[in-house]
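User:
Note these tokens:
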Amino acid sequence: MKKWISLFLVFNFLLLSFSQDKDSLKLENKRLEFQYKKLYFPVGLMVSGIATNGNGSGSIKNEIAEFRNEHLPGFQNHFDDYAQMFPFAAVYGFEWIGMKPRTDWKNRTAILIKGQLLNLGMVYLLKTTLNETRPDGTSFSFPSGHTANAFAGATMLSIEYGENHKWVPFAAYGVATGVGLMRIANNKHYISDVLFGAGLGILSMKIAYWTHQYQWNPAPSTKDPFLGSIY
């Protein structure tokens, strides 16, 4: 019994140590301003994915696939199936442990839904339209949906917490990059699929932020509604 009481006290101490008073976390819901230079990286990744998507035996994507088959024959792991969701879980989990996000949870959820509708919608459209063969011989290779999902989540996580916690973007994009590499190691995707998927995921989530109007949970107005009409 004493053991369980001790664990309970330790657990509560950790919560108090890492959490902050929710009333003190005043969220400003600052709109993310559009900047042309923010397009360079995701569009560059997408262009790189298209450029490396050649089908010749000497193409970059086939050379990397051959390197994988030579050094990692039979490798198979399902960690990337779960890791692609880690950034999205952290978008809410980090707030739970006391880190201050950029956006309140209602607007954050609306942005997430809009970003993923665009992201996964484009992934589905491209996969079914192009119907390219994966390295393992199955269908729907281009682009990588796992990678697009992971980088969309990493982008959202970086926007929400990167301003106050500089390490977050490195961790978020590190996980997303790991997911992309795992897709290649699992022989599920070519490098071209991963590059394009990464760019698509980043761009989709940025568009969701750039176009969001923050109409959910608006701050209460301080203006007197009767001023000028009654007195």
Summary: Residues 105-130 form the longest helix (26 residues).
